[in-house]
Amino acid sequence: MSGLRERMNRLRGASPQSSAAEDEAENRPLQDSDRLKPSEEEPEDRLSGEWSRMQVRTAANDWGSFLLREVFYPLDYQHGTHRLMELIDASAALSAFHRGSEETPAPSAYNMLFLDLETTGLGVGTGNVPFMVGLGYATFDRFVIEQSLIRHPAEERAMLAYLAEKLKNFDYLVTYNGRTFDWPVLAGRYIMNGLGRLDSRLLHLDFLHPSRSIWRNTLTSCKLSHIEEERLNIKRHDDVPGSLAPSIYFQYLADGDPAPLEGVFRHNEIDMLSLACLAIRFAHLLGGRLGIDVPYPEDQEELLRTGLWLDKMGLTDLAETLFARLADKDVPTGSWCLPLAARDKKVGNWERAVLLWQKIALSAEASALPSYEAHIELAMYNEHRSKDLPSALRYAESAMQLALRRPQSRRNDPKLRAELEAIANRLERLRRKQNKGNVN
Amino acid sequence: MNRWTGKASSLEDWLDHLRKQPEIMANVTHWHTIPAREAKTADLPADLHPKLIEALNIRGIERLFTHQSAAYRAVRDGKHVVAVTPTASGKTLCYNLPVLQSLLENESGRALYLFPTKALAQDQVAELQELANIMEVDLKTHTYDGDTPPTVRTAIRNAGHIVVTNPDMLHSAILPHHTKWVKLFENIKYIVIDELHAYRGVFGSHVANVIRRLKRICKFYGSAPQFICASATIDNPGEHAERLIGERVALVDNNGAPTGEKHFVFYNPPVVNQQLGIRRSSVLETRKLASLLLKQGVQTIVFARSRVRVELLLTYLQELEKGELGKKTIRGYRGGYLPKLRREIERGLRSGEIRGVVSTNALELGIDIGQLQACVLNGYPGTIASTWQQSGRAGRRQGSSVTFMVASSNPLDQYMIQNPDFFFNRPPERALIHPDNLLILIDHIKCAAYELPFEEGDRFGSESLTDMLEFLVEEKVLHRVQNRWYWMDQSFPAHNISLRSAAQENFIIIDRTEGSRVLGEVDRFGAPTLIHEEAIYIHEGVQYQVEKLDYPEKKAYVREVNVDYFTDANLAVELKVLHVDREAQSGSLVRQYGELTVNAKPTIFKKIRLRTHENIGSGPIHLPEEELHTSGYWFSFNEEAAAGKGTNEMQCALLGIANVLVHIAPLYLMCDPMDIRVVPQVKAVHTKRPTIYFYDRYPGGIGLSERLYEVHDELVRQAQSLIASCTCLSGCPACVGPIEEVGLLGKSQALELLGEARAVL
Fold first, then answer.
1. Does residue B356 carry a pLDDT above 90?
2. pTM listed for this prediction
3. Is the separation of the CB atoms in A239 and A267 below 8 Å?
4. Is the pLDDT reported for residue B645 higher than 90?
5. Chain B closest CA to A247's CA: distance in Å?
6. Cβ-contact B164, B141 below 8 angstroms
7. Does B418 lie in the same domain as B281?
8. Given a cut of 50, is residue B220 above it in pLDDT?
9. What region holds the Helicase ATP-binding domain (chain B) (predicted)?
10. How far does the CA of residue A154 sit from the closest CA of chain B (Å)?
11. Which domain holds residue B270?
């Protein structure tokens, strides 16, 4: 063995750093925790006092044993802006996520399972092991958080088998980025552990994508920890960041001391609560409770994005009330105008689209570096829909003038060149049409 | 020959005409004609599916060549197979036939095809898809590589019958995510590895380990696929395949494909300076011959050894486009071209619109460009195997073809051109791999552990697996529970491990005289002595001075200068023998093989005046020392052989011999000349005698010096005969090296020393 190390060091060029870790390990005085090495020295069903202080007990099934921590919250527990009990009335609105799957009952507080994994690495490769599975669900009188932990990788199978049983009791799986991370990781682990295919009967509610739809331009990050702080008013104290979880777990594997794992349990626990609050938030949005249970967004961009998302979810009426707030008031034009006009154009709501374009066009003409997209839209509208050729020509001409105000330095930009060319073609065509009309 | 147009009616006619031209024939050292060969065929296999028979018939195939039939039989008998076939012998049917047959019998079956490059993979899919379309069966064949869009990846993973990929993709994308490929791994029947000979040296050693991992995953899913390999002609196809896949294989080498008559012409550019042994540029001679062929309307491929030469020859030959040939009829082809452009060129060659192509060895592999009539090799391609591969690009099943090999003044080229027997009568090189190289092995054990935990009793390579796993436990990437070892680390090991050797990375030379342009490349090992700061770098006769060497970025910035000196760097090489594994004596030469460490550090450079060669100054070189622990072989001369030689004379003699050996060593190895180093020492620390060392330029060694140790006698004999038969007076770049380097007596001293050492034999 030492022969192999010597050979490895020689081949690697024997840099002094490579053996530093080893020296450190050898020089380290024997610590109390060395006696706490898991599995061998300790009977599996008897846990040290440290564990029970953390509310951790052993669980066992046909596949072996693992650890389980259970925490209970009363349903009127307030986490940030919401109380957990809001789940009871609001959840049904989440059915908007799965229209057309009538065979599954609508979401309710009692058929949703919240899930979040802590894993040893990133990505969904086969070497990434979930060492902790956090589950959350509501019962008639409380909200339960169940966290399973494996003391070493050989316990994984028992933990996964336990999870598979748990999944049978629910219809919906609620995650944050679970579609691309938690679920594929679990599916892989079931195969790796010879447990076959993971039950795919559950419908998935992954809130990452709707969160991105709404907040991607207003928040600097769409990580759950950022959204909960900025929008759900949740403040964490002494939080162990999720990114540290793997190294804490490796340290536990090496020295058997469970104490530092408490921070990981706590972090995962808050994640489950925040996930539940996020579910409440989206349920309110979909249930038309904006302005009632949830305040209107202050930011116009966020208002617009919320409206567009509701529109996409098939709740056009709800979306429309938000759009109306944007368009009707004497709101100055902003970056929200063009996307809203584009949406109106798509659904044939020409009246407001034209209004918005005119608003944008006016303010564009006054700006130093004007955009001319609204002018082009108006030129198109007048040419093809209202058949008002003189107006169409007027807007196209203004668009050309505005485009030519772009600095000389950008003239070689292929995109601008293509746009200029397109405007020129439009002008030419409009003039031709008009002449023909005049002749007739 | 038509008197009026100057054009020949056929290639034979033109070759006859060429033979009457003394100014050409004076440089032809050998003209070898390989007679046409009839096809040897066999009936279509009796058990072949009717749809497959019909599809073959539609493609005009009524009978199989003998090797195709034998390969089919062997696969059907359940054997792992390696088929050895020259270019254009219909080798793809050797594996496509049994694979398609099996899929027709059972459509839930799966096959994995591995090609060394993406381009080859795409050709293959097109061919398979065509067959499937003719048969009107729903057979899904897909490439899976870096270019595959994420949207179709899931479909391929679940439903692809044949997945065509490359070893790098298998290593970093498929194996570490095997749970997404359950359908493939549960049902995999065949693994096809084409271009087997490409997997040699460091790359091959990595690939052998990737295959070990692949087999482990297959076993986990309860499958035991058969391997079907295809290789170009090498000396040891069976052994190489067995080492690569770790299984016994049946060898199929009864090539039954017909070939037309083939002319192989060795062409040595005339000597222009007898004293210095300088010949006319091989590039200019290549241009001359290729132009003659192209003007005759003969579709021609020109192979050159470097990208720079490809571009140079292309520029020269494209001048023909202004005359008799049309625009875009002569094209280049090399690694840096974009895939779309490459496809266009390949199509143009097949359709005949493109009349000439200048390529690096990128076109040596089995990319379908149809069959051309003539091939001109600018320089010996480095190995016999490559030479046949490249020459095989010219040669149709009917009609004649011709290959010209134009020698450069490099000793290996000169040896080949003067020893045609060696080329025509010797088996090609051996492909060597060393999958148990400790560094390579440990890297793949990490990847394998990431993919599946190891269990006591598992095997992976020849080292003690338990020791390796315990080492990784100490390194804190594995965690042991009872008799199992689990990956327990945040990293994704395959990302940090490249299958392609870092030694292939070159330094780029950038000329900043006007703006900045890339002048050329220098390999990593040459960089410290050739392009250190202040070095004079000579490129196409123009002097440049190195202003800055960015060592980490592998870039040297130079500026054109006009000075009356050149620079010569001293590289202090220290060799320490750690362990002697083998020892033998022949004649008075004692040779040993074992482990050694090499410390190399460039120390100073000298400025030497042109013509007078006086030393006019020097300067230090500040570059890091490189340490290499590797395997080596060395031989030393005894006192009698050394008697009567002063240190200086001995130095010149040894240097001369070393210069020859470094060039002819690749004759016995399928390797790049850069993979092996030769160092002469007048009084070696280890032997206390004049000694010549060889070592592998890869940590841990990859089996090259060991092979040289085995062919030692032959190697020394060839070295002696090369020096003796060189026409120069007292040393030239084609034998012991220029007299500037080895002195006026270098050649005779080297010969004398070798003569005495071998006299006792």
1. yes
2. 0.83
3. yes
4. no
5. 8
6. yes
7. yes
8. yes
9. 72-252
10. 7
11. 11-35+259-425
Q: How confident is the model at residue A440 (pLDDT cuts 50, 70, 90)?
A: low
**What pLDDT sits at residue A246?**
95
Question: Helix, strand, or coil here: A35?
Answer: helix
- Mutation target to probe the B interface, by most B beta carbons within 10 A, among A118, A122, A126 is A126
Residue A153 touches partner B, C-beta closer than 8 Å: yes
Residues 92-121, chain A, touching B (beta carbon < 8 A): 120-121
CB atoms within 10 A of CB B455: 11
Distance CA A168, CA A157 (A): 17
User: Could you tell me if B754 and B717 lie in one domain?
Assistant: yes
Q: Are residues B186 and B292 in the same domain?
A: no
Query: In the predicted model, is pLDDT for residue B275 greater than 80?
Result: no
Name the packing angle between helices A156-167 and A182-192 (round to 10°). Answer: 120
Binary contact (A14, B627; C-beta < 8 A): yes
Q: Smallest Cα–Cα separation from B199: which of B166, B163, B247, B165?
A: B166
Domain count, chain B: 5
Q: Up-side HSE of residue A160: CA atoms within 13 Å toward CB?
A: 25
Enclosing H/E stretch for A184? helix A182-192
Contact B492 A123 (CB under 8 A): yes
Could you tell me the sign of the dihedral formed by the alpha carbons of B683, B684, B688, B689, in that order? negative
Reported confidence tier of residue A409, pLDDT bands at 50, 70, 90: low
Residues B241 and B263 in one domain: no
* pLDDT the model gives residue B423: 86
CA distance B86 to chain A (A): 39
| B127 shares a domain with B223 | yes
Question: A1 in contact with B at a CB cutoff of 8 Å?
Answer: yes
Same domain membership, residue B244 and residue B101: yes
Which residues in chain A touch residue B486, judged by CB atoms under 8 angstroms apart?
A: 129, 152-154
* Contact call for B179 and A191, based on CB within 8 A: yes
Cβ distance B481 to A121 less than 8 Å, yes or no, reads no
SS3 string, B198-217, reads HCCHHHHHHHHHHHHHHHHH
Task: Find chain A residues with C-beta within 8 A of B474's C-beta.
Answer: 5, 22
Contact of A18 with chain B, judged by CB distance below 8 Å, is answered with no
pLDDT at B501: 60
Q: What is the model's pLDDT at position B691?
A: 93
8 Å CB contact of A153 and B486: yes
Task: Confirm whether the ipTM is greater than 0.85.
Answer: no
In a domain, B368, yes or no: yes
Confidence of residue B218 (pLDDT cuts 50, 70, 90): very high
Would an 8 Å CB–CB cutoff place A20 in contact with chain B?
A: no
What is the Cα Rg of chain B in Å?
28
Whether B527 and B402 share a structural domain: no
> Among B653, B673, B645, which Cα is nearest to B719's?
B653
User: B366 vs B13, B386, B692, CA distance in Å?
Assistant: 30, 12, 39
B611 pLDDT band, cuts 50/70/90, is low
Closest residue by Cα to residue A407 from A368, A366, A373: A368
Q: Is A188 on the interface with B (CB under 8 A)?
A: yes
Buried/exposed code over B373-400 (b: 16+ C-beta within 10 A; e: otherwise)? bbbbbbbbbbbbbbbbbbbbbbbbeeeb
Whether the predicted pLDDT of B125 surpasses 90: no
State which amino acid sits at residue A369.
Answer: L
Average pLDDT, chain B: 87
Determine which of B475, B481, B601, B630 to mutate to test the interface with A (most A C-beta atoms within 10 Å).
Answer: B481
